[in-house]
Design goal:
Largest sheet of chain A: 9 strands, mixed
Number of strands of chain A: 11
Number of domains of chain A: 1
Number of helices of chain A: 13
CATH class of chain A: Alpha Beta
Order of helices and strands of chain A: EHEHEHEHHHHEEEHEHEHHHHEE
Shape of chain A: globular
CATH superfamily of chain A: Thiolase/Chalcone synthase
Oligomer: homodimer
């Protein structure tokens, strides 16, 4: 595949703001702080940057960020739709621009006042517009108004079908909360979680309780992408993109693909898995660590199957002996993830993927030669595999 | 430039709906009609398509269009911001996806009820949100609320600086209205325009009168992009992309870059010009025809200078002897353009660029080996050069 994106681009800079519950500043300010931090970390100047990509949901346009940070001319700019599904899409966009010479240094970013501003958990009530009206009219009258309510549909079916229980969900939640305790920027640092607390917490949307749901967070995250050749001249250790792909499957809706034959599986994630394994020439056995998208605990179980770490319905068995912990088969979300670091719409999980490859995670596993990162579950999404520079 | 986008992708299908003042159907319906028509015209099946790109302003999401047209899985999807500036950006996106193997057949589309629904001429009143609030607060209190009012600022300055008059603007308007008379899908077909009518029409925003402003149109337009190799196997004559680039210049705002040293020029368009000429290895002397973005007549004059067809301030002299007509130096918007065919946000100008290269325009010039197409003026934008397959 002469024309594939394998090893055509590298991530060379990470920038984050503090993750809080009340930033006290605008989303544009958070975006600019993160973008500048990423550029600084890469050892570049703002004027080196000639491409910007963000989430369609982001409130800070590329040109506002460019003007406010000292970035000058842009030869490439685009946005990706579908909430958390966009995270890997941003990297896909940047990698294409780098591979085709459309830009030299691309910064991707996401900043949100996800707690002090509009909260994800508020759902779509009062916000449904345009052609979406038709779409949502099938769901909102039945109380399906929030991300938790949509994912609960699949969760319920998955647990019924394969015998997974809330005890298995708790294992995901506790493992990641434990990881977060070593992460200075985790919003839950200092707040450990016991199995008793997990079970005594209030139900949000059955079978998902409070600790099955990710944080709502104010903060920003940005990453710098360039070519492997240019990456060699920079200060930081690059994370090379072995493979990156977007994926939307037949019958795809945004969070509500309930008319498919089987709602207990994630066909778009299985599609992304096939794409990145083929592109990288790797299989699940080659993946040392992962940052699987974790807006809800159940999503981690489902993705372990999508990416072939275990058979369909077997994730509950895969995780029991600490497989997702630092010493386990697949250390996952070593920073705490969206559940326990903060919810910057999944871009912060990609940042952790880069740290793992660099060897600088707050919970660095012994081996992290190949790290898998996915984006949003239940939406048009994507996946990528990061590795060391060749 | 081994990694440039030169000759890496071709446009192989055009689809349009009727252009009207009242479609009577939803924008999603228009989008799907245009997308299906483009796929049919290319001789493909919906299931062949694996990439979709649209304007951020479009109300029909990629997955809604995919489900409604029989397109299945997608390996690539993105959107481009900044109104009419997005048109060429869509082609840029598609070309990158094709060149990197991220998709095999990409459809780009734009559909809008631009007359019966939200009218562009209504401007931003009551629609300003989020970080844009800061931006617009500098302009809206002074009555700068609509596209005509923003462009009038540059138009006034340009005319003052270089001695262009409304008589020159009229030449642009009349030439394109004349072209539209041969175009079955032009909304102004059968409504010729005289210089007297031009001057007696009401002023919209001085110095721009009614006929200096583009149509407000209901309709959809879509294009299919694939590799030059795959294009050879298809029925239609492909238009090969010799060069394509996006461009946003330092100090860029969306329609209101009034704090730059010189508002009588278009630095982002000059940047796009340099990029496409360099990429294609061509200069203005090689361009046989053009579809210069024409939301307002003045924009055509300014772009003739940006793309080097004449010196700065000399467009008024360039156009006087029918340079923009069928037998002239640079036949421009041979379909009537946004001024007289209809306003599908500039994507319909790209469609005409393809027809010119195919030799199927309703006003086909003798020679159209290289056709230049630009997108939105006063916004982050882009340009492309189309040619015959090599």
């Amino acid at each position: 595949m002469a024309d594939s994106l394998k090893n055509k681009a590298s991530i060379v800079g990470i920038g984050t703001t503090p993750f809080t519950k009340n930033s006290g500043v605008s989303e544009l300010s958070l975006a600019c702080q993160a973008v500048r931090a990423a550029i600084d970390e890469a050892g570049l100047k703002p004027s080196d940057v000639d491409g910007l990509v963000t989430f369609l949901l982001d409130s800070s346009d590329e040109i506002e960020v460019a003007r406010s940070t000292g970035i000058g001319d842009l030869t490439f700019f685009s946005q990706v739709n579908y909430g958390g599904g966009a995270a890997v899409g941003l990297i896909h966009q940047a990698a294409m621009a780098i591979a085709t010479g459309s830009a030299k240094y691309v910064v991707v970013y996401r900043a949100m006042n996800g707690r002090s501003g509009h909260r994800m958990g508020q759902g779509v009530s009062g916000q449904v517009v345009t052609s979406d009206l038709i779409h949502w009219s099938w769901y909102t009258p039945f109380g399906l108004l929030t991300p938790a309510s949509w994912i609960a549909m699949s969760a319920q079916r998955y647990m019924h079908e394969y015998g997974a229980t809330r005890d298995h969900l708790a294992t995901v939640a506790l493992t990641q909360r434990d990881h977060a305790q070593a992460n200075p920027n985790a919003t839950t640092r200092g707040r450990t979680l016991s199995r008793e607390e997990y079970f005594s917490a209030r139900m949000v949307s059955r079978p998902l309780g409070l600790y099955d749901c990710c944080q709502e967070t104010d903060g920003g995250c940005a990453l710098v992408i360039t070519s492997p050749e240019r990456a060699r001249d920079l200060a930081s250790k690059p994370a090379q993109i072995r493979a990156v792909s977007q994926a939307s499957f037949e019958g795809q809706e945004q969070m509500t693909s309930f008319y498919r034959p089987d709602i207990a599986r994630l066909p778009e994630m299985e599609m992304a898995a096939r794409a990145v394994y083929t592109q990288a020439g790797l299989g699940p056995e080659d993946i040392d660590a992962a940052c699987l998208y974790d807006a809800f605990t159940i999503e981690v179980l489902m993705q372990l199957e999508s990416f072939g770490f275990c058979g369909v319905g077997e994730a509950k068995d895969f995780i029991v002996d600490g497989a997702l912990t630092l010493g386990g088969r697949l250390p996952n979300n070593t920073h705490g993830g969206l559940l326990s670091e903060g919810y910057i719409h999944g871009l912060n999980n990609i940042a952790e993927g880069v740290r793992l490859v660099r060897g600088t995670s707050c919970n660095q596993p012994e081996r992290a030669d190949h790290v898998l990162v996915s984006s949003g579950v239940g939406v048009p999404t994507g996946a990528m595999i990061l590795g060391c520079a060749e």
